[in-house]
Write a structure and sequence with these properties.
Quinone Oxidoreductase, Chain A, domain 1; Rossmann fold; 25% helix; single chain
């Protein structure tokens, strides 16, 4: 098998040849068709997240075909198209798992972080965390961003509540998906981008945003909730200023720079700040069944497997609209 391997944080990925994989009990081997390039992959590669295992193959927005079943796997069949996301497995016995909060599992595995991921031609995955992908979801490239940007986006939208007016800070892979879901739900969507980012602002308007501006601008109406997708802590007080009393600010990233101090007055009025951590299989099943109804259209830039470093560089520099996808 071929893979783009990270030997140490901060280094470029290296194309390697590895022995063929053999699935263990409860596992399946996938032949990978596409794998999205997520900002979390960038945090893994750049060392923003504490290193867990090296060398490691990044990538956790995987679309593949089941090639071989391990012992005991009855839920999938050879030749079936499946998706794999960030949560690679959960223990099932800790207090969080027992309480149906496996996203907070005490002994999880994360695809592309603690176990090898999808920047490769093949991957081994826990069959319980591989999601069948029906044809109505669309093509492989369009689906890949749904498996993390979409799933985390969906969890953050649910966490934001059912308010009519919602703000999205940062308009990358997750926000361009969730803006479409929020509009389908009948909400008003305000989009906040970096100052002067005309390309992202135009893109947001094309997807139906009701108001678009810079991250420090005041929206046309007070927001019921705001979701922060950009890993910028300074956006938390900005979002608190934009939400009405009783509003909620959801921090959706796995990594964020430090939040600066801010006056209590902008939190007062029963405003709340919450974070979203990982995802659950329930999130995946809910969102993947919803996506065909919304008719989500993901905007993707395609790269070959060997171009993974270029894709990461473009994401790091903010040169992408939508999502990057490796085609293997």
């Amino acid at each position: 098998m071929r893979a783009m391997q990270l030997d140490h944080p901060g280094e470029r990925l290296r194309l390697v040849e590895r022995p063929d994989l053999e699935p263990g009990p409860g596992e399946v081997r996938l032949e990978i068709r596409t794998c999205g390039v997520c900002r979390t992959d960038l945090h893994v590669v750049d060392g923003d997240l504490p290193p867990q295992r090296h060398p490691i193959i990044p990538g956790h927005e995987i679309v593949g075909v089941v090639e071989q079943l391990g012992d005991g796997v009855a839920s999938l069949r050879v030749g079936e198209r499946v998706g794999v996301g960030w949560l690679g497995s959960a223990c099932g016995v800790c207090p969080y798992c027992v309480a149906d909060r496996e996203n907070l599992c005490d002994a999880p595995a994360f695809t592309g972080y603690t176990r090898d991921g999808g920047f490769a031609s093949h991957v081994l995955v826990d069959a319980r965390f591989a999601y069948p992908l029906p044809e109505e979801l669309g093509d492989d490239c369009g689906i890949a961003p749904l498996l993390c940007a979409g799933l985390i986006g969906w969890r953050s939208l649910v966490a934001a509540g059912e308010g009519r007016s919602i703000g999205l800070y940062g308009f990358g892979a997750a926000a361009h998906i969730i803006a479409q879901v929020a509009k389908w739900q009948g909400r008003r969507v305000s989009v906040f981008t970096r100052e002067g980012d005309q390309a992202s602002q135009t893109f947001a308007r094309e997807l139906g945003a009701d108001w678009v501006g810079g991250s420090d601008d005041a929206p046309s109406e007070a927001l019921d909730a705001a979701i922060i997708y950009a890993p910028v802590g300074a956006l938390v007080p900005a979002a608190l200023k934009a939400v009405r009393k009783g509003g909620r600010v959801v921090c959706a990233g796995i990594h964020m720079s430090d939040i600066p101090t801010f006056p209590y007055q902008i939190l007062w009025g029963e405003r709340a700040v919450v974070s979203v951590a990982n995802l659950t299989r329930r999130d995946a099943h809910e969102f993947l069944s919803l996506a065909p109804k919304v008719r989500i259209k993901t905007q993707t830039t395609r790269y070959g497997l060997e171009q993974a470093n270029e894709a990461l560089s473009d994401l790091r520099a903010g040169r992408l609209q939508g999502a990057a996808v490796l085609v293997t």
